[in-house]
Amino acid sequence: MKIGYARVSSRWYQAELQISALKSEGCDRIWKDTTRDGMLSTSGLEDFIGQLAPGTTVIATRLSAVARSLPDLLYFLESVTQKGAKFRSLAEPWCDTSVRSPSELLQILRGAVEFDVELKALDAATIEDSPSAVGITVGRPNKLSEGERIKAISLLRIGKSAAEVGRLLGVSRSTISRLKTSLRD
Asked: Mind listing the pLDDT tens digit for each residue in 73-90?
């Protein structure tokens, strides 16, 4: 027995195209699952899985009609194979448990899910470990402390030249000139 699986949502609105493709594959029945806010209805999925029997082949037009992420796909395929059913995607011929061993395919997907989780953890760690995350600025240190900057700005406002203020504070004229231009901004 062949059962077609079609998902209907605002993003995957071509239910008619899915149903037409599944009928042309000779599906005896077609299950339409609806989504709300991009999430699959877990009760609808459980009802679908509950109707599967050993020897049944589940056919979907594409993997994105079955799952929104690798973990969702893995859960779906594990649920189907635990019932003794086969799965085939029309758009992704590599995902066919009647040709390839279901345990082999599931093992590959588990590895892909672990890899995806590790990449996300690495990205999160990279962001958390960045110098700016802990208040460290990257680049050359400031030549003037905050107090010296305030003093330099005060001296510039009363008419002292950048060279005079620089000599007084022990920094170059260009360092003070940069302060001067930041005052204009």
From this structure: 888 889 999 999 999 989
C-alpha distances in Å from residue 23, one per residue of 3, 19, 44, 87: 10, 6, 21, 16
**Do residues 55 and 84 touch, judged by C-beta distance below 8 A?**
yes
Tokens encoding 69: 């992420």
At CA 10, angle to CA 60 and CA 57, rounded to 5? 10
Beta strands 29-36; 39-40: pairing state: antiparallel
